[in-house]
Design a protein that fits this description.
Elements: H1 3-8, E1 33-39, E2 42-47, E3 50-52, E4 57-58, E5 61-66, E6 70-75, E7 78-83
Antiparallel strand pairs: 1-2, 2-3, 4-5, 5-6, 6-7
Length: about 90
């Protein structure tokens, strides 16, 4: 198979919103909120495949809030909000 064909194929099992890295040894700083799980009035967030609770630390960030649609992370560089869904569903002209 040619390199062109290989570069155009995507992994059908890759989570929605995941971004592939050109170098697998490179440490990615992109955080992707994949899911929010609620059970017994407690929420957990799945970020980059890691199950996290409020107060957990991941990749230099402290998870401070989990809502039904997103999370808030805090770090020395500032706060970051991740949401499950983009605000733009479809863009029509």
């Amino acid at each position: 198979m040619s390199n062109y064909v290989n570069s155009q194929q995507t992994d059908p099992t890759r989570p929605f919103g995941a971004i592939a890295s050109a170098n697998s040894n490179e440490k990615s700083t992109t955080l992707v909120l994949q899911s929010i799980i609620e059970s017994n009035n407690k929420r957990k967030a799945i970020i980059n495949g890691q199950v996290l609770n409020v107060g957990d630390k991941y990749n230099g960030f402290n998870l401070i809030t989990i809502s039904k649609n997103g999370v808030v992370l805090d770090s020395p560089q500032g706060r970051m909000e991740l949401s499950l869904f983009s605000g733009v569903i479809a863009n029509s002209k």
